[in-house]
Amino acid sequence: MFTRAIVRKPAHTYANGITTSNLGKPDFELVKKQHQAYCEALINCGLELTVLDPDPNFPDSCFVEDTAVVTKDFGIITRPGDPRRLGEEIEIRKVLEPILKLHYIEEPGTLDGGDIMQADKKFYVGLSNRTNLSGSKQLKEILASYNYDVYSIPVCNILHFKTGVNYLGENNLILHHEFCSKDDFKIYNQIIVDTNEEYAANSLRVNDFVLVPKGFPKIKSKIQELGYKIIELEMSEFQKMDGGLSCLSLRF
Ligand code: GLY
Prior knowledge:
This protein is α/β, with parallel strands linked by helices. 22% of the residues lie in helices and 27% in strands. The protein has helices at residues 28-44, 88-96, 133-144, 161-164, 217-225, 236-239; strands spanning 4-8, 48-52, 68-70, 74-77, 101-104, 116-119, 122-127, 149-154, 165-169, 172-176, 189-193, 204-206, 209-213, 229-233, 250-251. The strands form five sheets. It has a three-stranded mixed β-sheet with strand order 2-1-15, covered by helices on one side. A three-stranded mixed β-sheet has the order 3-4-5, covered by helices on one side.
């Protein structure tokens, strides 16, 4: 069970962030509204939120997940892999320092939290354009010291590992239909995300609920059929900036 989450409000510079989506410029009023709805959903899932002020120096900084990997016992402060995001982790470190025992990814390592997925006592580390071998090796050493099994997985054609794969719990794994390393996940009950619903591969289990982006009926039904309660959230303005449901919070 998660009890806490950290989120950061989007800054007025949000539209200047990094994107490959070609979905147009985000509407900032809608961004704030969708972020507020996301925060309310986390509260409805039973989480106590720490809401950080916007940081206009970092347009992507509402995507806090990339700055740390957290569990209830410890945190790992990352080194974001795109130079434009390097430095976002400094504020998150200040917030987590009084709460958790912290470890740090050091240069030349780079690592984005969006590339790290926990599935019970296993962690998967996606090797992407953001997370390099050094970052992955450092993370593995830290996680191994806490007795987690850690697996590296190549990521192709998507931004982050969790853009394409997310663990729901109970051995259920959501998987993008074209995910390049499908064979690495044979042990799981795979819920395949169909063509035209790829964005919803980043659905997010939070306690008794699964948060699903609005507008993806096929994956919503598949998740519901497994017995999960769903909260649907409008995510259009985050999708425009390559952000998903998991990116918007650190949960622990
Ligand atoms: N816009 C989110 C990212 O590229 O990291």
